[in-house]
Design a protein that fits this description.
Blueprint lengths: L1 H15 L22 E5 L2 E7 L14 E9 L10 E7 L5 E7 L7 E9 L5 E4 L3 E4 L8 E8 L2 E7 L4 E8 L6 E6 L4 E3 L8 E11 L2 E4 L6 E3 L14 E5 L2 E5 L8 E10 L5 E6 L4 E4 L7 E10 L11 E4 L2
Parallel strand pairs: 1-15
Antiparallel strand pairs: 1-2, 2-5, 3-4, 3-6, 6-7, 6-8, 9-10, 10-13, 11-12, 11-14, 14-15, 14-16, 17-18, 18-21, 19-20, 19-22, 22-23
């Protein structure tokens, strides 16, 4: 009985054991995936190349070890890669996936340049070249000059000098670490209406040119600083009229469109005398003057004032004669 028991025990262990292991898997090659988002643009006298390092290998494993980046540039239209220029070939930490390289544009001015990168693993393997980018290199664009920023009733007015076809305006506040584009213009001038009084702003401008494979910008100008303050009065009230009523002279005028309007001040002159403040209103654009006497003519004018206390000039006068 003992040999039969041992055979049964062996069969049971086999059915509940490790089972069939199979053929051993080949070692992972750890080849980085190809770069697919390579871009290039001309900034002043430089060519700026940007791309993102892959996060995985071709076997869909996490890419954790440093890689070697090789960047090449050569005449567009010729077989790629070329051996005309190896712009960069050095180890890169994959923890910093956004990569930027800067090349001199001088030797490519007036020509089309093709640019590509490939990524090598530590053991020297690569999945091949990235997407190839063609760039038409032009003479470096002139830096916008004489940049000025001044507060205006509409916001902040930015002016500069230059002869480029297009401009991009950047802005940051005193708390922002970097500037962001706020507008693109085809001539040297822009009014930023999205501002607040008492806030410090910094503005800078760059020229740019696009078309075909041209993607060129100038260097960005130095920043100018401005803190707009509310020193601008509301528009002068218009359409003032004066009508004699029973025991009063009724005044009315067109409402002001000032966004920060606080009210109106009414001025009166008796006969040919000078204007004196009669009163003010914070409500409708109308006023009733009951301090009148028969046989006397009165002249009236109205101003508008805002929440900062700025007061407009006087309106065109209106006259009324009490009989």
């Amino acid at each position: 009985m003992r040999p039969r028991f041992l055979l049964l025990l062996a069969a049971a262990l086999a059915s509940f054991g490790c089972g069939y292991i199979g053929e051993p898997l080949p070692p992972a090659l750890h080849i980085p995936e190809r770069v697919t988002n390579l871009s290039a643009s001309q900034q002043g006298a430089s060519i700026v190349v940007e791309f993102t390092l892959p996060s995985h290998t071709t076997e869909n494993l996490d890419l954790a070890k440093p890689v070697r980046v090789e960047l090449r540039a050569g005449p567009a239209g010729e077989p790629f890669p070329t051996d005309t220029q190896e712009a960069a070939a050095k180890p890169v930490d994959v923890a910093h996936r956004a990569v930027t390289y800067t090349l001199s544009a001088a030797e490519w001015v007036g020509r089309n340049v093709a640019i590509g990168v490939r990524i090598f693993s530590e053991n020297g393997r690569t999945a091949g070249w990235s997407n190839l980018v063609t760039l038409s290199v032009v003479e470096p664009m002139a830096l916008p000059a004489d940049l000025q920023a001044k507060a205006s009733p509409e916001g902040v007015r930015i002016t500069w000098t230059g002869s480029s076809p297009h401009y991009r305006i950047y802005r940051r506040t005193g708390q922002d670490p970097s500037a962001s584009p706020v507008h693109e213009a085809d001539s040297p001038g822009f009014t930023d209406t999205n501002t607040q009084y008492g806030t410090m702003y910094y503005y800078s401008v760059e020229a740019y040119r696009t078309g075909g494979d041209i993607r060129a910008t100038s260097e960005r100008s130095a920043e100018v600083e401005v803190t707009p303050l509310d020193k601008f009065p509301p528009p002068v009230p218009a359409g003032l009229g004066a009508v004699v009523s029973t025991g009063s002279i009724e005044l009315a005028w067109e409402p002001s469109t000032a966004p920060d309007l606080a009210g109106y001040r009414i001025y009166r002159a008796v006969g040919t005398g000078s204007f004196q403040k009669l009163g003010q209103t914070r409500e409708l654009p109308s006023y009733s003057d009951a301090k009148i006497e028969p046989g006397i003519s009165y002249r009236y004018a109205v101003t508008a004032f805002d929440q900062a206390g700025n007061e407009s000039a006087m309106s065109e006068p209106a006259m009324a004669m009490v009989h």
